[in-house]
């Protein structure tokens, strides 16, 4: 079993809150992770609502179903439940029966000990009204994304923390050529894909999308015409790294704008797509305020585009957006466990000077990151970082150009070119 870097964060949440929801896309490893926690605790209990009988029981009588699960939970003195002495009831795929959330609220209001319920969901709980209404202030949300490169390599990445430190590590064991990077991109991060031969990936992803459409999206919204979703995903994959323009996508699919926005919200809710909001400040400079669109796994993205690592290696126009998408998602994964709690944005001026990724720390410091698929960096590649530095002023902490080279190269006092593999090579210890 691959150790997930989010585990300490998840255990901390269980030690502090009565309800914890681990949510993320299907097949990211949620079940494996929560079952391991339940099995380490003698009084832990695991059930999954993907089981037809359990699903029916929970739907028919949510309060009675929950009462049966919690019968072995015994109240303890407050001083005995500090730390990590939790004995959770684990409910897998809880979004399938939203009525359970009200029953959980009533149970928690009677007994607020931490670590009572650990749930998983393949839909974003913040977008399910019954969840946000019932468990506000009682529940901690923890995201689980597909495997990061550090998790695959069995290291604990600390790239996000390093780039906000005073100095940067000057050494990195870089990939010798781009072939290794493109293999990582084409493989993606779903645990089952990671363990399979490349020839089986296409059929796995086809089955994966079918499962999401037939289960998760139907659970969230009773929609006819599910065949439109793969078309929408393919179009979004072809525009990854671009500004999200609903009107343009609507025209491209001949789909009403209201329908498109509803479908897009469902793709967000099932963790298939992710937007990056713009960073801007109240200055006189005109800045673009539209979000950028990304897919949450580059393995799925290459399948939707019908390309492999060989095609990526010889087509720089195609590989550029995929490399950017790859970097964005690696940073999003690391942000869930890094000591520096960052928010992520993009930056673009009205005249087209842009920075692919802007990370903002709680203190307001900014790190701008440009992503280049090539093995060299030129002065023109720094124009976006210079523009961000001009707007951010004293808040600008550092600028980085991630590229396919092998050396950390200083371009200015606080601007460096850094090998892409530093994302997973700069690690704790």
Question: Can you offer a commentary on this structure?
Answer:
- This protein is 42% helix and 16% strand.
- The strands form 3 sheets. It has a 6-stranded mixed sheet with strand order 8-9-10-11-13-12, with helices on both faces.
- It folds into 2 domains: 7-143, P-loop containing nucleotide triphosphate hydrolases (Rossmann fold), CATH 3.40.50; 156-425, no CATH class.
- The chain has 19 helices and 13 strands.
- With 429 residues, it is an alpha/beta fold.
- The model is unreliable at 76-84 (pLDDT under 50).
Task: Describe, in short, the structure shown.
The protein has about 425 residues and is α/β, with parallel strands linked by helices. Helices cover about 40% and strands about 15% of the residues.
Please render the helix and strand layout as text.
Blueprint: H1 7-16, E1 19-23, H2 30-40, E2 45-48, H3 52-60, H4 62-69, E3 89-92, H5 100-110, E4 117-121, H6 129-134, E5 139-143, H7 149-153, H8 159-163, H9 178-187, H10 191-194, H11 201-220, H12 228-238, H13 246-253, H14 257-269, E6 273-276, E7 292-295, H15 298-305, H16 309-314, H17 316-335, E8 343-348, E9 354-360, E10 366-371, H18 383-392, E11 396-403, E12 409-412, E13 415-419, H19 422-425
Parallel strand pairs: 1-4, 1-5, 2-3, 3-4, 10-11, 11-13
Antiparallel strand pairs: 6-7, 8-9, 9-10, 12-13
Helix pairs in contact: 3-4, 4-5, 9-15, 12-15
């Amino acid at each position: 079993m691959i150790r997930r870097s989010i585990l300490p964060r998840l255990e901390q949440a269980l030690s502090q809150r009565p309800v914890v929801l681990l949510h993320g896309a299907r097949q990211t490893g949620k079940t494996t992770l929560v079952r391991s926690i339940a099995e380490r605790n003698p009084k832990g209990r695991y059930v999954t609502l993907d089981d037809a009988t359990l699903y029916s029981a929970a739907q028919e009588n949510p309060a009675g179903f929950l009462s049966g699960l919690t019968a072995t939970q015994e109240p303890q003195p407050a001083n005995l439940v500090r730390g990590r002495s939790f004995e959770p009831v684990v409910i897998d795929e809880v979004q399938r029966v939203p009525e359970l959330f009200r029953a959980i609220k009533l149970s928690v209001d009677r007994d607020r000990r931490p670590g009572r319920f650990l749930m998983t969901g393949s839909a974003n709980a913040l977008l399910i009204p019954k969840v946000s209404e019932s468990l506000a202030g009682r529940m901690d949300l923890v995201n689980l994304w597909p495997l990061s490169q550090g998790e695959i390599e069995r290291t604990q990445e600390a790239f996000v923390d390093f780039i906000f430190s005073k100095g940067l590590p000057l050494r990195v064991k870089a990939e010798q050529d781009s072939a290794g990077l493109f293999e990582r991109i084409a493989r993606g991060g779903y645990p089952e894909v990671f363990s399979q031969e490349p020839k089986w990936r296409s059929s796995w992803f086809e089955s994966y999308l079918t499962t999401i459409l037939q289960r998760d999206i139907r659970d969230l919204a009773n929609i006819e015409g599910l065949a439109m979703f793969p078309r929408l995903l393919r179009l979004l994959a072809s525009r990854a790294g671009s500004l999200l323009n609903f009107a343009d996508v609507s025209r491209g699919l001949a789909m009403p704008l209201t329908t498109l926005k509803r479908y897009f919200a469902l793709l967000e809710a099932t963790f298939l797509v992710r937007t990056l909001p713009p960073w801007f400040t109240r200055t006189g400079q005109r800045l673009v305020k539209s979000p950028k669109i990304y897919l949450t796994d580059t393995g799925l993205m290459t399948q939707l585009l019908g390309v492999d690592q060989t095609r990526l290696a010889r087509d720089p126009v195609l590989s550029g957006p995929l490399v950017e998408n790859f970097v964005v998602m690696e940073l999003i994964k690391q942000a869930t466990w890094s000591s520096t709690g960052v928010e992520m944005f993009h930056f673009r001026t009205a005249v087209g000077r842009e920075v692919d990724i802007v990370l903002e720390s709680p203190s307001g410091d900014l790190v701008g990151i440009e992503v280049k698929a090539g093995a060299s960096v030129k002065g023109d590649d720094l124009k976006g970082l210079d523009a961000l530095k001009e707007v951010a002023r004293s808040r600008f902490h550092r600028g980085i150009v991630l590229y396919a080279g092998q050396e950390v190269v200083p371009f200015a006092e606080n601007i460096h070119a850094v090998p892409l593999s530093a994302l997973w090579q700069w690690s704790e210890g």
